[in-house]
Amino acid sequence: xxxxxxxxxxxxxxxxxxxxxxxxxxxxxxxxxxxxxxxxxxxxxxxxxxxxxxxxxxxxxxxxxxxxxxxxxxxxxxxxxxxxxxxxxxxxxxxxxxxxxxxxxxxxxxxxxxxxxxxxxxxxxxxxxxxxxxxxxxxxxxxxxxxxxxxxxxxxxxxxxxxxxxxxxxxxxxxxxxxxxxxxxxxxxxxxxx
Length: 194
Fold this sequence. Notes:
- By secondary structure, this protein is α+β, with helices and mostly antiparallel strands.
- It has four helices and 13 strands.
- It folds into two domains: about 5-90, CATH 2.40.240.10; about 100-194, CATH 2.170.120.20.
- It has helices spanning about 15-25, 50, 110-115, 180-194, and strands at about 5-10, 25-35, 40-45, 60-65, 65-80, 85-90, 100-110, 120, 125-130, 140-145, 150-155, 165, 170-175.
- The chain is elongated and about 80 Å long.
- GO terms for molecular function: 5S rRNA binding; structural constituent of ribosome.
């Protein structure tokens, strides 16, 4: 999985007033936890663009005073009206400890059902994946090559070698439904036979 490097500076003061001052300076208060003790940080908002405002999921390498720590974004808080980032939580990664992440679904190929006029409906855009950090996929690929009209692809149909998908096996990822035009053509054909 891709890793994005950002830099942070330690924060001694952790209060509402200090957080407001940080935001005024173009920084965001952050917390790095999961290690021996949690660290309170200040991170420049511009550094977080490639981490937060993207459909991809990436690891983050946080450089605090020369010490680099690999982590993932665990939680973000946005202002309810302005959508400005208010706070971010990072979870420290360890090579031997499994993590759970929301990984995007990537649809590949062309469905024969869509070629015949069916409508492709994607119900899940992300899946919960549990794996070691080294085995975490960038995305989960779903092949549409065998999807006919009326068929669907479920979580149980996916095979992961080094990772486990923790969604319910019965959850539908993508399906091909009959479009209105196709239904109309079928009814007209049935009427014509009578």
